[in-house]
Amino acid sequence: MARVLRNDLVERYENRYPTAVRCFLDDFEACIAHLHCPPSHRRVIRTTNLLERLFEEERRRTKAVSTFFGERPVLKLAFAALIRGAERWRGIRVTDFERIHLQRLQEELETKHREENAPAVGTSSTPNRVYSNSRT
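Predicted structure:
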């Protein structure tokens, strides 16, 4: 459905706004990546609002405390913000159907990753050894 709507949008606007349509097409697959996940998870993962909120919270707190005494206090602050953000995920129930869906998605992604990152030259079980004429 998303791809059909994409094609319609491209047909309508590619002549009027070619640069915007090109930008839209470049990022389209990333924009619909959340549609591969179960519907109950999409609302939480479809935006970067959680990440943006964490950055905003960190900026707010660093303004309140003008000086930090090192790396450790900053890491504690970031970790605490991440823990609060993760609490939002705890309320999501994962049914058996969704678990199977997520396992299939993981397998698809792993297969795609292996294919994209396969070595250019085939590998053999024994390494190729290069010796001089005197085998030294």
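Summary: The CA atoms of residues 41 and 92 lie 7 Å apart.
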